[in-house]
Amino acid sequence: MKKIAVTGASGFVGGVLCHTLIKHGHSVRALVRRTSDLSGLPSPSTGENFELAYGDVTDYRSLLDAFFGCDVIFHAAAVVEPWLPDPSSFFSVNVGGLKNVVQAAKETKTIEKVIYTSSMVALGSTDGYVADESQVHHEKYFYTEYERSKVAADKVASQAAAEGLPIVTLYPGVVYGPGKLTTGNALAKMLLDSSHNVTIDRFTGVLPGYIGGGDDRLSFCHVDDVVGAATITRTEKPRFSIPLWVIEAYGWLSILLFHLTGKLPLLCPASVHVLRHQWAYSFEKARRELDYNPEA
C-alpha cells in the first residue's frame, strides 16, 4: 500500500482517481482549496484511508505539507477552460503549479514517482495522420491559451525528468464519463447541463445536429480508463451538421453573456479553431504497457 498525494482532487478526474486509489488499498491525501466543492470525494470521516490537505498548487508551502510522508504524487490540478477573461491563471496554475509540484517533490525525500496529467493538446494537432506520444508540438501557433500553457508545462516536466525526477507524463484525449459536470468533463456537460443561459443540451433537442462536417477525428477516453453504453437516452442520432461558423457565432454570444452574467462559456471562438483541426492519437503504448483496451 502506498501513501499517495493527489492534486486537483476536487476536480472531475481527481475525484474519480481518489476513489479508485482507495479501492485498490492505497492511502490518499487530497489537496483541495478551502472553497473547493468536495461532493465528488470520499468523506474523511469514513476512515477509508482518506484525508484532506488544504492548499493550492500555487502555494508552495501548502504542497510541502501535503506531500510530507507520501510515496507518490498524482498531479491532476489544472485550469481547464476554453476561454477566460484573464488568461494568466492558465500559466500560474498549469505551468507555475507544476513547477511548484516538481520542486516540492524534490524537497520531499520520500517521493518515489510523480504522475503528471497533461493533455493531447500539448502534442499538437494531427491533420491528416495519427500521431502518438512522441510527437512534439510545432509551437508555430496555438488555438487556445490552455493549449499554450500545457505545452509550456510539458517543458517543465521534461526538464524535471532530465534532472532525475521520476516523473511520468500522461496525455489523455477528451475525458468523459459519469461525475461532475465541470469543463474537465465537457462532453457530458455539453450533453446534460442546462444551467447555461443559451443551453446546447443535446437531449432536450436544442442541439439537433452534430458540430462540423461529421468526418472530424478527435481522441476520447473514459474517465475510468484515464485513472485505472447502452442507448438509454431515447433520442435519435443527429441527422445534419451545424457549420462551424454557427458555433463560432454562438461562442461570441457566450462571451457577451459572460460579461452580462459572469458565467464562463462552454464554447468560444478559440474552441472552433480547435475543431477545425484533427486530434487523432494512437493508444498503442498504453495498450502494450498498461493493458489498456477501450475497444473491449
- Average of per-residue pLDDT values: 84
Listing every helix as H and every strand as E from the N terminus to the C terminus, the arrangement reads EHEEHEHHEHEEHEEHEHHH
| Oligomer designation | single chain
As a whole number of angstroms, the C-alpha radius of gyration is 19 Å
pLDDT under 50 segments (min length 5)? 194-203
Q: What is the assigned CATH homologous superfamily?
A: NAD(P)-binding Rossmann-like Domain
Outline type: globular
Find the CATH topology. Answer: Rossmann fold
Number of helices: 10
Question: Can you identify the CATH class?
Answer: Alpha Beta
Strand content: 5-15%
CATH architecture assignment name? 3-Layer(aba) Sandwich
First-residue to last-residue Cα separation: 29 Å
Structural class: alpha/beta
- Tell me about the largest β-sheet: 6 strands, parallel
**Count of extended strands:** 10
Protein name: NAD-dependent epimerase/dehydratase domain-containing protein
GO molecular function, one term: aldehyde dehydrogenase (NAD+) activity
Organism: Populus tomentosa
GO cellular component, one term: cytoplasm
